[in-house]
Amino acid sequence: MKKELLCKIERIAARAVKKAQQENHRKGLPIVYAKNGKIYFELSDGSVTTVNPFSV
Question: Which candidate, 20, 23, 24, 18, places its Cα nearest to that of 53?
Fold first, then answer.
């Protein structure tokens, strides 16, 4: 039972993340990720940069 519940929660969370990412792209907002202590910005055109687009 617990495993089924966890799988369901994971699916719901994954859909929510995907929806938020799509909405950000539509609005022209970057998606911000951190990996190994470094911050990455995925721009609405799909390119990825480490330059903060808000500070430019």
Answer: 24
Domain positions in the chain are 2-49
The CA R_g of the chain, rounded to the nearest whole Å, is 15
Compute how many other C-beta atoms are within 10 angstroms of the C-beta atom of residue 42: 16
Per the confidence metrics, is the pTM higher than 0.85? Answer: no
Residues 1-51 have pLDDT tens digits of 699 999 999 999 999 999 999 999 999 999 999 999 999 999 989 899 999
Show the DSSP H helices in the chain as ranges. Answer: 2-27
